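Lab notebook, bench 4. The sequencing result for the construct came back, and we need a structural model before the next group meeting so we can plan mutations. Quick request posted to the team channel:

Model the 3D structure of this chain.
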Amino acid sequence: MKDIYYQVTGQGFPVVFLHGNGEDHHIFDQAVNLLSKQYQCICIDSRYHGRSVHAGELSYQQMCQDVMAVMDELNIAAYDVIGFSDGGIVSLMLGMQDSRLKHIISIGANTKPRYIKRFYRLTFYLQMICLAIFSIYQKKARLTFRLYKLMLTQPQIEYKQLQQIHVPVLVLAGEFDMIDAKDTNHIGESLPYGIVKIIQHGNHFLLRDAFQETVKEISLFLEACHQEENYECMSSSTIEDR
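Done. Here's the predicted structure in token form:
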């Protein structure tokens, strides 16, 4: 896919990595170094991020469609997803739309903008006010403004929609996450096969500030999911980095 950049590392069952707002696939570098020993790690730069196209619709639904298009291109018949923040939102949306998705790890996701804690929402709004001025002159400021707006207007997921996800889901969040704990727990309760794990003393950026404990939970979940499953290679040809 010429519009969406992705990088593939390792061999085994495909695991897709989806980053958060304003980031790129490199936030998973440390995790991929470990997980690529067992899995085929597919790291994607979301639209308007990293080396992917900075054009088209900016929405979580479009990001979801982009992931499915990459899976089409790679001839992936079954895959898992590890999504952080915005990527965690997209991972849940994929679970409602793509039957190829078999297991989900959603880190720091929210169902609606109002479940971002008030302090952080206020901070984002204040930053948008400042960015509005610089947006007149700077392309980067205009993009950042749009990315903040995305977080403050999307997603709009109803808990009952999560009942459509009939695959195992690990819902991870930090004890001091920027996402309201009530939303995190309701996500887990709404999922037919959901497990909620709160990382003690952790914040929103678990892969950065609580890496060892977070990657341990990820590894244990994936191992449990695949323990009794024997998958063949899911891609029809050798895949090279894009």
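Residues 231-242 have pLDDT under 50 and may be disordered.
Will bring this to the meeting.
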